[in-house]
Amino acid sequence: MTDTDALPASSIQVAQRAAQFQWDGNAFEAGIGIAASGGGFRAMLFHTGALLRLSELGILESAKRISSASGGSIATGFLATVWNDLAQNRFQNFKQAFVEPMLAFTRQKIDVVDALTGALPWTSASQQVADSYDKYLFTNRTLQDLPDAPQFVFCATNLQTGVLFRFTKLYAGDYVLGRLDKLNCALPRP
Predict the structure, then answer these.
(1) What single DSSP character describes residue 108?
(2) What 3-state DSSP class applies to 44?
(3) Cis peptide bond upstream of 190, omega within 30
(4) How far apart are CA 70 and CA 43, in angstroms?
(5) β-strands 178-181, 171-174: how paired?
(6) pLDDT digits over 121-158, tens only?
(7) What is the pTM of this model?
(8) Three-class SS of residue 35?
């Protein structure tokens, strides 16, 4: 008896699809990878400081892949929007281009205002928060506006399937729903 003999047919099919699904980058890739974890607003602030230090050490500009979830995605999502400017200036303007706007964003009162506005019948708190993130950080940028290098990977849980969903410039998807190439949607919001 194998491990899959004890599973219901639907579970076997899901396991087979998961085993067959191919992401870019499943093989070993030499180079520096950076991971930014979740934890909401505090994670965003923590990662702003951590990315500043990595920049000061000359490590950030050598990164091949930057992957994040939740609050870490707020920081890395904004980093992706200013990456080309940073690279053009050899990361000498990191505080002005990245840190100062992130700190200015933290002074916005989006949580209270957006929650109250979200109680109105024609909107929701989540829509108001998404609009605020777009207004103060992402300014209508989409996944296709991300730099070609490094590869930015935003991770989230697909609430319909319960599995990891990845967003990148090249593709978005999960092993249950499949893969969509060059998806042109707004940058992920927590």
Answers:
(1) S
(2) helix
(3) no
(4) 8
(5) antiparallel
(6) 888 887 888 888 888 999 889 899 999 999 999 999 88
(7) 0.81
(8) strand
